[in-house]
Design goal:
globular; 0% strand; 6 helices
């Protein structure tokens, strides 16, 4: 009987983690959409990264890193500040341009196991 209970607990925990991940992805997508919509006409990077939705993504914490990197794989965007803040590292060199910075962060994410 205890084997069945242990299996049920593990199954419950796995299902809860899936639901948590789905809810996290949904929240990230909502915040990202709001951020992009509200900042699409802005040219000031500081105003773009100070947007409340962007800041809320940062507040998600480390669990936002793979979401940001996955998004960066699909579409280049100004995620560098958030990634630096969340990871406490910056693999980008000062001489790297925007596209190079994207590639550097994606390579970093692969090396760290956040994305494939």
């Amino acid at each position: 009987m205890s084997g069945k209970i242990s299996t049920a607990i593990v199954d419950f925990q796995e299902n809860l983690e899936i639901l948590n991940q789905e809810a996290l992805q949904e929240r990230f997508d909502q915040l990202k959409s709001q951020w992009k919509q509200d900042t699409e006409m802005l040219s000031s990077i500081s105003r773009i990264i100070k947007h409340p939705a962007y800041q809320k993504i940062i507040l998600i914490g480390e669990r936002a890193i793979p979401l940001i990197l996955s998004d960066l794989q699909k579409e280049s965007d100004h995620w560098f500040y958030a990634l630096t803040k969340l990871t406490k590292t910056d693999p980008v060199k000062p001489e790297d341009d925007f596209n190079q910075a994207v590639e550097v962060w994606l390579n970093w994410g692969k090396q760290q196991g956040y994305i494939q």
